[in-house]
Amino acid sequence: xxxxxxxxxxxxxxxxxxxxxxxxxxxxxxxxxxxxxxxxxxxxxxxxxxxxxxxxxxxxxxxxxxxxxxxxxxxxxxxxxxxxxxxxxxxxxxxxxxxxxxxxxxxxxxxxxxxxxxxxxxxxxxxxxxxxxxxxxxxxxxxxxxxxxxxxxxxxxxxxxxxxxxxxxxxxxxxxxxxxxxxxxxxxxxxxxxxxxxxxxxxxxxxxxxxxxxxxxxxxxxxxxxxxxxxxxxxxxxxxxxxxxxxxxxxxxxxxxxxxxxxxxxxxxxxxxxxxxxxxxxxxxxxxxxxxxxxxxxxxx
Length: 301
Hints:
Blueprint: E1 19-24, E2 30-36, E3 45-49, H1 63-66, E4 71-75, H2 92-105, E5 111-116, H3 119-129, E6 134-140, H4 153-171, H5 175-178, H6 180-185, H7 188-197, H8 201-223, E7 233-238, H9 247-262, E8 268-272, H10 279-282, H11 284-300
Helix pairs in contact: 2-3, 4-8
């Protein structure tokens, strides 16, 4: 399902994630966003970036809380959710440029960027492109180049197998059953959105397109990481295994998160004790608290 209208979706006026708004990219594609306007006296805009195959709906337990004290924007990357498919390769740079176009639309800032999983490197790249408008970054169980295992043959093989399996599940309409515990945790309107939009063949194809270059692009960060300067960075790690992460993988991931936080002069590493990889579902209040801390710091400065 693809959407390219610039008109807001009137049916969603009372949606927990706000009103729909289309953003046009520099090359003419349309990205679907949903916006909670926040209080009028707050200048900060918080923009959420989802994981590799995820849509805006995965933030439905975090964004409404943030919308109480800041403008809060979620969006679907091209080929996910309600955003138009991209005919070009979905490189990390291209995805970061799309996020930059979203920020331009809602500018001039300041912005706090929040990225989950594979959204973490996208957020970092977009922040480094225009650091003067970024007030803070929150990385939620992010994919990080400091974890050596990401570049192993086994990891690449497992990713290819997972994408192939998901294609079968999407074509047979069985994928929602695997993620029922996740969708059941969401507010009803976001749950319906995810069930309708989140488990499609188009989603799997988009994930496959992203995966073609993502790990190689991420490897380049080792020699030339996005320069965030003095931007405050909070990294939130899940504490538990699961979702394809055994004890070894979890330990390596959390070590890379600790390293990433240490690279910021105002870095902070937080452990979500109740969570595995899907912290936005199992510990949304921790994410909201860390965003709130950065927003409050911006308002006071």
